[in-house]
UniProtKB/TrEMBL annotation:
This is CCA-adding enzyme. It comes from the Archaea. Residues 1-31 are annotated as: Disordered. It catalyses: a tRNA with a 3' CCA end + 2 CTP + ATP = a tRNA with a 3' CCACCA end + 3 diphosphate; a tRNA precursor + 2 CTP + ATP = a tRNA with a 3' CCA end + 3 diphosphate. It comes from Haloterrigena salina JCM 13891. InterPro entries: CAA_C (IPR048833), CCA-adding_arc (IPR008229), CCA_tRNA_nucleotrans_2 (IPR042090), NT_2-5OAS_ClassI-CCAase (IPR006116), NT_sf (IPR043519), NuclTrfase_I-like_C (IPR011068), Polymerase_NTP_transf_dom (IPR002934), tRNA_NucTransf2 (IPR015329). GO terms for biological process: RNA repair; tRNA 3'-terminal CCA addition.
Length: 477
């Protein structure tokens, strides 16, 4: 929207707005008014900032004391969005990194790191990424105390966490108050459209990636205008490293590490989702897009109505979810989903669409265009003029009492042989399910026990997975 349009009544873009930034006069929302309303809602106020600062300073001092008692050359820094002032009101994460000199061996770093973590967070517990760290809660804030090496360059890292201090320093030098406010807008926008988070369940935009994009494009609006016109693969290299190539829909070379694509985890569908909503928002600004859309829960009546309307046959494999963190579980579920859908397709059941989700139980759902197959299947042999192969095919089936043929169709032998599975249930309940590519822990869980649901039987999933089923049967971008 031009400045002229933003300021002129005659173009229909001015008017009155309610407290949510939505127009009350029936016209389209004004982008600046919507942005101002959202900013007011998501920016931490002075009291919230003071509370966070007080807690962070106290814990940093405690961590510094514990760290330097063990290693005089150690230091402590706050990293992440609360260090860069790009956090959104309501966020409760304080990340404290304890940096040790590089000459310290890995085993000692881990031991010191845990000791410092427990002294900083006496009620905390240990978790493990590439190495262990301590996590806890203090006055409502979620605190991570993470050990890392203090290095001269991110290219020298020994684990992924070693990069994080470089990210903080890089962005602190480039973010001013206006860009910081725009980063909050961009993060909230991505949260609203369901594309924020670099965890392997979401596979969206990380906080660091979002901040780099806002800096690269000069603000929130610049990012949306650019994304609306992206032609993937999109390649950005903020520091002109020009050394690596990556096969991803979005490539943002890490300014601190030229060998890393910051957007590597970002799925193509989330890049496309940002493009879709960027276009819609620029065309018709709305505050609603900044809030996640809860589809509600699909009940059995609504599910049956969808199945009757669609005329497809859903099948589901339900089993106890492996005891893994989500970043380990979801890659295995997706691998298993791909293996199972390929197995169904290969047997002629024509997967229409498929998905997977989990809580205490895990489910792989495939919607089939074809639910039943004939008792026989066609098997084409080689052309008859390819004698060695043709003779072998003919001899293999000539005396098979269960096969029709071999006979000649065109220039080749053909036989019609009994089909191994005439129903998807038959395949899914057979040992042949384990011939497809399954995640290792998923395969173990299926070996122990699983249940196959077909057609209306998937209504049994509504109680635990009503929201996931609503997203599937009532899809939105």
């Amino acid at each position: 929207m031009s400045e002229e349009d933003a300021e002129s009544d005659e173009h229909g873009t001015s008017g009155t707005f309610d407290e949510h930034g939505s127009r009350t006069d029936g016209g389209r929302d004004d982008l600046e008014a919507v942005v101002a309303a959202v900013r007011e809602r998501i920016e931490p106020d002075a009291e919230e900032r003071d509370r966070l600062r007080t807690v962070a300073d106290r814990l940093i001092e405690r961590a510094e004391t514990a760290a330097t008692e063990r290693c005089p050359d150690a230091d402590v820094m706050q990293v992440g969005s609360t260090a860069r002032d790009t956090w959104i009101s309501g966020d409760r994460d304080i990340d404290i990194f304890v940096r040790f000199p590089p000459e310290l061996d890995r085993e000692t770093l881990e031991r010191y790191g845990l000791e410092v973590g427990h002294e900083t967070l006496p009620e905390g517990h240990e978790e493990y990424a590439e190495h262990p760290y301590v996590k806890g809660t203090v006055e409502g804030f979620d605190i991570d105390v993470v050990p890392c090496f203090r290095l001269e360059s991110a290219t020298e890292i020994r684990s992924a966490v070693d990069r994080t201090p470089f990210h903080t320093s890089y962005l602190q030098a480039r973010l001013d108050d206006e860009l910081t406010a725009d980063v909050r807008l961009a993060k909230q926008f991505l949260k609203g459209i369901g594309a924020y988070g670099s965890d392997l369940r979401t596979r969206g935009f990380s906080g660091y990636l979002t901040e780099l994009l806002v800096v690269e494009y000069g603000g929130f609006r610049g990012l949306l205008e650019a994304a609306a016109e992206w032609q993937p693969p999109v390649e950005l290299d903020p520091e002109d490293h020009g050394q690596e190539t990556f096969d991803d829909p979005l490539v943002v070379i890490d300014p601190t590490d030229p060998e890393r694509n910051v957007a590597a985890v970002c799925a193509a569908e989330n890049v496309a989702r940002l493009q879709h909503y960027a276009r819609r928002f620029l065309d018709t600004p709305r505050t609603e897009v900044f809030e996640p859309d809860d589809p509600g829960s699909l009940d059995e009546t609504a599910l049956h109505a969808h199945l009757e309307r669609r005329g497809t046959t859903p099948v589901a494999v339900r089993f106890e979810a492996p005891d893994l963190v989500e970043d380990q579980l979801y890659p295995q579920l997706r691998k298993s989903l791909e293996g199972i859908t390929t197995g169904l397709d290969d047997r002629g059941f024509d997967v229409f669409r498929a998905t997977t989700f989990a809580d205490d139980a895990a489910v792989i759902v495939a919607e089939l265009a074809v639910a039943d197959r004939p008792a026989v299947e066609r098997h084409d042999g080689p052309p008859i003029h390819v004698r060695s192969h043709a003779d072998g095919f003919y001899e293999a089936y000539a005396d098979d009492p269960d096969a029709y043929g071999p006979f000649i169709d065109g220039d080749r032998y053909v036989t019609e042989r009994p089909r191994e599975f005439t129903t998807a249930r038959g395949f899914l309940e057979s040992d042949r399910l384990f011939d497809v590519g399954l995640g290792a822990h998923v395969e173990t869980a299926l070996t122990e026990e699983y249940e196959v649901l077909v057609g209306d039987e998937i209504a049994a999933l509504c109680e635990a997975f009503g929201r996931e089923l609503a997203r599937y049967f009532e899809p939105r971008p």
